Amino acid sequence: MSRPAGVPLIHVSIDRIVEEGKDVKTFVMEPAPGSADKRLAYRAGQFLTLRLPVGADRPVMRSYSISTCPVSDPRLAVTVRDTPGGAGSNWLYEKAVPGMTLEALPPTGQFTLDESDSGILLFAAGLGITPLYSLCKYALATSGRTVRLHYSGRDRATTPFVGALEDLERAHRGRMRLDLRLTGAEGRLDAETVRDVAASMHAPTAYVCGPPGYQAMVVDALLAAGRPPSSIRTESSGRPPRTR
Fold it and tell me: For the whole model, what pTM was predicted?
């Protein structure tokens, strides 16, 4: 990804780094010390693009989904999986430390909540949970909307935010339902289950994020269940904006 023409870079500092599970870390950001730049304002579901000094003369631009909520979390954070051969994620895992200053583009992205008061149906697989975790927290904190999240991960040890999502479900009992599918034991999500989940909510807007094959299956199943295309929003964790 190259830097868009005319968009000035901002400076951010890594406040802390949180281990979320095997090969997954959250990088908590804040405006760099002494910087007058406050352009870390963001909307739930957006992403942050970092300019990473991978080589002395070869910086790379990498986009990572924001996992925090602008009204319930004190600082912006991005969650990153260490991907074999991933220049950006490898650099972050090997070189990034708290207190380090990085260049970035202001947060952006269109994978944000609509303005309706209808229920919200979320489908996530793997690190596709990152923007949906942000959307879930925001919807619960700022509205009376009901939320159902179907989340697929291999096992609890490698599936980020499981404990935090279970805490959210307990705190918002009656408004939030978490369906956790551990694919190592239960197998992958199938179209029939997608249709059953979709039938459980009245006219929800559906948000889908995960690897391309997962995303295509979920979207096709929702359409087959009669959901109009306008009620389905997607963000892929397998191609730009990159989440690795």
Answer: 0.91
